Amino acid sequence: MHHVQVKSSGNVGDVDRRIIAALQLNGRATWKQVAAAVGATESTVARRGQQLLDAGIVTVTGVLDHLRCGLGISLQVRLRCRPGTANVVAEALAGLEVARFVSVVTGSADVAAELVVPHHRDVASVLVDGLPQPDDIVETEAMVVVRKFSAVEEWDTGLLGPEAVALLRPDGTQPDHREWHEPERLSAQEFAIAEVLAADGRASYSQIAAAVGVSHSTAARRVESLVRRGCLRFRTVFEARLIGLDVEFLQWLTVEPGELENVGAQLAKQGSTRYVSATAGRFNLCLHGVLPGYGDLYHYMTAVIGALPGIHTADMTLQARTLKRAWVRTGTDGTRMKEPPR
Prior knowledge:
Order of helices and strands: HHHEEHEEHEHHHHEEHEEHEE
Distance between the termini: 34 Å
Structural class: alpha+beta
Radius of gyration: 20 Å
Largest sheet: 8 strands, antiparallel, barrel
Number of strands: 11
């Protein structure tokens, strides 16, 4: 895997950046494990790491895989808005329960979102009936995600070396996104556990047990089962600029069908790629990426995207303000908004 070269950020210290990178590798790692990975004392890491979490600068959340659990399908949506209304539309979208990701973007679209709905036909009613001022939206384009090549929780920032990666991800395996599976049927107890972890992905088994009303051992078994079956994943939410990656973007590609598997797999290996999926629509590949700065965009467009076979269209939109990530609402300062858990 090729990693981007991150630059220093003045907002947090070097130890903080390394803690963030460690939590990105494993959001439920113990402070002892994080300390070993970042090369600092456990007391320092525990104090500073908890400060990052308490301030909402970093959030760890448990996310159910909606496809694996039969909870709906994912759509990547691009919206063009009437002049001056992009922020209003984005705020309204972010308030919808079905919105998993919402960002104001620059370029050929004004707002980009990921919606999780029972069926692709439901997206029209969401954008018409679910928004207070649907006339602010001039044009929408919704593309169903049909296969993921990589997800954000798998991303490695590149700030820590291979020893740290091996320590925090000891099994070395990645989730299997390649095939559709028969949905797993979750019990009411498992949904309750998932709700606790959505609010706090680092909740201990004792905290989960107390909240759900089960034993410590049962809580541990249920969480481990959800993870093993591919139903539950842990996502670390933070602003990429904190670790020196100042440009977040969405790349929309039209790729020859015969090259789609190859291009998706190659892009998944790039250190700048946080998420990439195949979609049904005008663009058949959607990518979320990060780069250190604007000076890196030209090289990315020419040397990375330009080197791939079978690409007919490459449309890049830059994220100007992201309001929601992995169901987590974020304020204008990028920290987690205080609201009831989803």
